[in-house]
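Q: For a teaching session next week I want to show students how multiple molecules come together into a single three-dimensional assembly. I've collected the sequence lines for a complex. Could you give me the predicted structure tokens for the whole thing so I can convert them for display?
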Amino acid sequence: MVTRTRNKDEVGYTRPADSRHEQIIKAAGALFVSKGYLKTTVREIARASGITVGTLYHYFSSKDDILSFIQEDTSDFISNLVQEAEETLSQSGPVEALRLAIRKYFSIVNDFQDITLFWYHDTGNLQPAHQEHLLHCDELLGEAFKRILDAGCQSGEFKQHDTTLTAHDIIVLGDMWAFRRWFLRKHYTFAQYATEQIDLILSAITNNRFQRQVLERRAEKTR
Amino acid sequence: MVTRTRNKDEVGYTRPADSRHEQIIKAAGALFVSKGYLKTTVREIARASGITVGTLYHYFSSKDDILSFIQEDTSDFISNLVQEAEETLSQSGPVEALRLAIRKYFSIVNDFQDITLFWYHDTGNLQPAHQEHLLHCDELLGEAFKRILDAGCQSGEFKQHDTTLTAHDIIVLGDMWAFRRWFLRKHYTFAQYATEQIDLILSAITNNRFQRQVLERRAEKTR
Amino acid sequence: MVTRTRNKDEVGYTRPADSRHEQIIKAAGALFVSKGYLKTTVREIARASGITVGTLYHYFSSKDDILSFIQEDTSDFISNLVQEAEETLSQSGPVEALRLAIRKYFSIVNDFQDITLFWYHDTGNLQPAHQEHLLHCDELLGEAFKRILDAGCQSGEFKQHDTTLTAHDIIVLGDMWAFRRWFLRKHYTFAQYATEQIDLILSAITNNRFQRQVLERRAEKTR
Amino acid sequence: MVTRTRNKDEVGYTRPADSRHEQIIKAAGALFVSKGYLKTTVREIARASGITVGTLYHYFSSKDDILSFIQEDTSDFISNLVQEAEETLSQSGPVEALRLAIRKYFSIVNDFQDITLFWYHDTGNLQPAHQEHLLHCDELLGEAFKRILDAGCQSGEFKQHDTTLTAHDIIVLGDMWAFRRWFLRKHYTFAQYATEQIDLILSAITNNRFQRQVLERRAEKTR
DNA sequence: AATGAATGAGAGTTCATTCAT
DNA sequence: TATGAATGAACTCTCATTCAT
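A: Of course. Below is the structure for the complete assembly, covering every listed component.
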């Protein structure tokens, strides 16, 4: 679970009050993910957090409020990713930037599999405002990927193609690691999965005259 | 909505009882899709079906029972698709079979967008047995795609690659048309979407020496 | 308790469904009056009505809804009174009309002592719309009394005076029988109370040259 | 708000503790009046007092306890009035004493409109003992008025009539300024209201042969 | 004296399901 | 078949009060 940093001055130190807050979010997150938002009762969250309902409402104004905090946590990570991707693009080339960005996003999905899964199931239970925020995050992420892809097209390393669509394909193939885990886990480790998918994506968009390099790179890696 | 054919002998004849049955499923399906399973009340389903709760319980033993029937409806379609794919493969080559199978699956998703979306949201509310059935359908579909892909690898038209993964990627990129419609509808018609994705998939797996053909085919189409 | 007439065709016949409705209103009214609206729980109302909470919510959409029905019941009576007063005024003179109207209003208060008392305590717990309706009823009643008083002033039977204020004084002196019953019941029967107050009011507003008549009338009555 | 004088010896000196006490009563009174006793939460009282709940419970043992103190404050005023009335009666005549006492009582109601209103709404939430105390105060006040009225009857200035009832009528017509303010404020200033009511009351009870004096007095005033 | 986190019983309300008619 | 009144457990949320710090 993500550690939110509301503490003002303290570094590497969590106040007991904050720990309660996180303790509840942690428990609630786990329950939401395993049972769904609606089927999880406030009493269960309280019990799982080792407190009583009254105390829970001391920290959160409503069941929905807990959800909002979980959401905030994850959207922070996306913002980070978007920023990093931008930097990598200007430093290394588009190919490397794309590889890194994909791998980074897939890692996030891997780390927050449950929550990713949860969004796919329970988006409809968020307040409209929060739903929009989530979609907005997603579009931002898509645009970040698109910028890398466009850079590659311009440099000639990528074929001319619909970069908007590819960007969203990448996101979905990442999320898939979470929502198809019942199948994928039987056949792949996360590392294998990420590598395979990255290769497939690059294979789809890399210009023919660069294909050899792609294949060579793959050979090196598996050596 | 799908029309279930439970009547064995009767042809072109629907009993009033059956019509009630379908009427309820239709109404329930629409409500489940728009509000989610848990947020839909039995009373609402009854009202939307133009009957009373008591009557509803004459046709279905529980709220969950209604869900099961909806599920059966859709899984029929998948079985059909799997069978057709097999036939096409033996008649035309793997490339053509893949194009057709993908297009067919994407069409199903397009026709049942709401239900596809619904499965992504509410799978968790199905009885375990029904959940497994759904996953099983999915694996069957994946295997159907895999057989086509393997055939293409063997014929040399497709690169050697992880066909299992690609098969599932195809399914997910199809479902995506439903669960990302909030975004995709803004940029693509269904026809555009299907064409673009098919090209991208083929571009990713087609052997280099066949790439020209792929490009030519695309050129023809847009001409 | 007042019998509301929602039944469409039936005359002098109460359907069992309606009886439930009234049964609940009756029980709720008694509880609201004795404990106050806020301190009365829905569970108590149900228990007092001999049903369960679920059933109660079958007949009323909320606790507040029950209150609304109680209110409707009483405001019907006021409308009646206002109409009757008008008729009496045109038939008999203002003095007689005033006597009758006062006596009528006092009787209503006497019959619905508890509810009158309840309004004084719990007006603040009504929805704003219902509060306004109640005040509106009160103004209508005030205006009815005022019309009689004005007629008397014009005919010379009553002194020139602020009839608006007197009208409201009359209403308040009526309500007083409910909200001061802890004291008044110790000293007066309802009949005594009504007679005394009517005399006092007439004594305050009757023109001097008619005073003798008033006194004579009183003498007759007590004879 | 009323300033309680609990400090026995100290003169012109308020201890900080006492100021807290009053501060809370002030805030609580305002809230009770505007929202009602039950709908006001202890947390709100604390916040409005600029302290925390814990601190509040250092000064008052319970929510109910706060109410008791508010009550005491007002009943002091009644005792004062009763005493003054007695003195005026012995100095001036009954007519003048009545005029003064009424005006005095009406002034108190005007000053403490909110609290008067509050008693009408929330008497039921007082502890039985406090309720009785309140009723007792009211009876004392009634008796004070009655003594003046009786004196007037004996002197011949007032008609023979039921002085007990009139005494209570006076109180109610005073309170009415508070609980009917939604209407009265639209038509009268406090001064007008008091004058009109006093005239009406005197007009009702003054002996005919004194009526002229009453009218003359009124004429003088409006001149 | 002052805090505010913790309590837990109890509030109003919902809803899948049953069953006598 | 068809009805819809009846059920009651379970839901989210509130709040007066306590008590360790």
